[in-house]
Amino acid sequence: MFVDQVKIYVKGGDGGNGMVAFRREKYVPDGGPAGGDGGKGADVILQVEEGLRTLMDFRYKRHFKANRGEHGMSKNQHGRNSESMIVKVPPGTVVMDDDTKETLADLTEHGQQYVVAKGGRGGRGNTRFATPRNPAPEVAENGEPGQERYIVLELKVLADVGLVGFPSVGKSTLLSVVSAAKPKIAEYHFTTIVPNLGVVETEDGRSFVMADLPGLIEGAHQGVGLGHQFLRHIERTRVIIHVVDMGGLEGRDPYDDYVTINEELKEYNMRLTERAQIVVANKMDMPDSEENLASFKEKLGDDVKVFPISALTRSGLRDLLYAVADELEHAPEFPLYEEEAIEQRVVYKHEKEEKGFRITRDPDGAFVLSGADIEKLFVMTNFNHEESIKRFARQLRGMGVDEALRERGAQDGDLVRLLEYEFEFVE
Ligand SMILES: Nc1nc2c(ncn2[C@@H]2O[C@H](COP(=O)(O)OP(=O)(O)OP(=O)(O)O)[C@@H](O)[C@H]2O)c(=O)[nH]1
Ligand SMILES: [Mg+2]
């Protein structure tokens, strides 16, 4: 099966906790603070591996949690940073945030990296909190939590050439005779439901990747049937081979077919009509084909060159493939996203971080504090030490939490909740 879109969970490693420790040396009565910092948690990094062609590997592994940083130790020893977790993706992988649907990165070149979930920084050990007034603090920070999120990886087929046309015109048959691909071929319409890829080599040693596509029908661009999805697969191709059936068995006029498909491409509006198009008249082995071709060419005019072939008897293929290879030599690339997004291949968007805090009430009347900043502060507090707790209280005050609670009507002794922590509001 061809997997081209997958949702995965990534989490950067948490930072290691800072340590509260003191020097214990003989003959040194009041050993100073000696708690080391925690190490940095590992980042989760996506990295392009050119050998990969699909997102197949992600079918079985969808959770990526990087290691946490080592905790700080006594004797001022810092915990070790954790090494980044590298997740390999094929070239052409577009990374989206599942929540915001924002495109985070468009990964195309071998070795290109994108940090998709940052590891947390290590918490500071008590050594770092020493001041002249408080030379032996019992304060240490826990590590910062690693960033976590769901992302969607999407792989556009990286074919150079895409075959389009009505159902059953012979697109898959053509792909099967010019490459080693083994697509399903049958008389009924919509035999192909996902694109197949094949590497084509011309007699003079040039090569390119060709994809057959599910048949297009009128209204495909409006999401009728599966058409819309299909068109997505040719957004990145540089040359389009438009296959027209000259067999006449289905009772349609080849020229009408040709016009209809071009309308579809135009309506879809991904600059598909700007690509070089090579028109192929297939099924030239059929009895009425010569006649149909003559009238097709007449309606088409002299400006459009037509390549008559028979995928079945394999005639006319050599000229066609040469023409495709020639075209590819100067066909421009068609990047997927609008100009501003492609200036930089990796788009680092500023994370919209929720600032500050919110106050709500629980049914029992308790005040509930929430918000990214305040919650982070909470998890980075080491509640085993009285002094750390006091520091936490000071930080809350600094953020304006006390004042905001007072404004909401909190009085001495009222219950305040923050994550799993409860405390009393003290005036
Ligand atoms: N006579 C003749 N039949 C052909 C030729 N090429 C394909 N066919 C037949 O046409 C039918 C459809 O071929 P496919 O290759 O499956 O067509 P397709 O365009 O991929 O069709 P969908 O995937 O359904 O859109 C099959 O029965 C093929 O054997 C040809 O050159 N000559
Ligand atoms: Mg097919």
TrEMBL record:
Start and end residues of each OCT domain: 349-427
Pfam families: DUF1967 (PF09269), GTP1_OBG (PF01018), MMR_HSR1 (PF01926)
Cell compartment(s), UniProt: Cytoplasm
Domain (Obg): residue spans on this chain: 1-158
Binding residues for Mg(2+): 172, 192
Cofactor(s) in the UniProt record: Mg(2+)
Enzyme Commission numbers on file: 3.6.5.-
Domain of life: Bacteria
EC class name: hydrolase
Stretches for region Disordered: 117-143
Keyword Flavoprotein in record: no
Record's keyword terms, sorted: Cytoplasm, GTP-binding, Hydrolase, Magnesium, Metal-binding, Nucleotide-binding
GO MF entries: hydrolase activity
Residue ranges annotated for the OBG-type G domain, each copy included: 159-329
Residues given in the record as GTP binding sites: 165-172, 190-194, 212-215, 282-285, 310-312
NCBIfam families, alphabetized: Obg_CgtA, Obg_CgtA_exten, PRK12296.1, PRK12297.1, PRK12299.1, small_GTP
Protein family (similarity comment): Belongs to the TRAFAC class OBG-HflX-like GTPase superfamily. OBG GTPase family.
Annotated function: An essential GTPase which binds GTP, GDP and possibly (p)ppGpp with moderate affinity, with high nucleotide exchange rates and a fairly low GTP hydrolysis rate. Plays a role in control of the cell cycle, stress response, ribosome biogenesis and in those bacteria that undergo differentiation, in morphogenesis control.
Quaternary structure and partners: Monomer.
Protein name: GTPase Obg
Source organism of this protein record: Sutcliffiella tianshenii
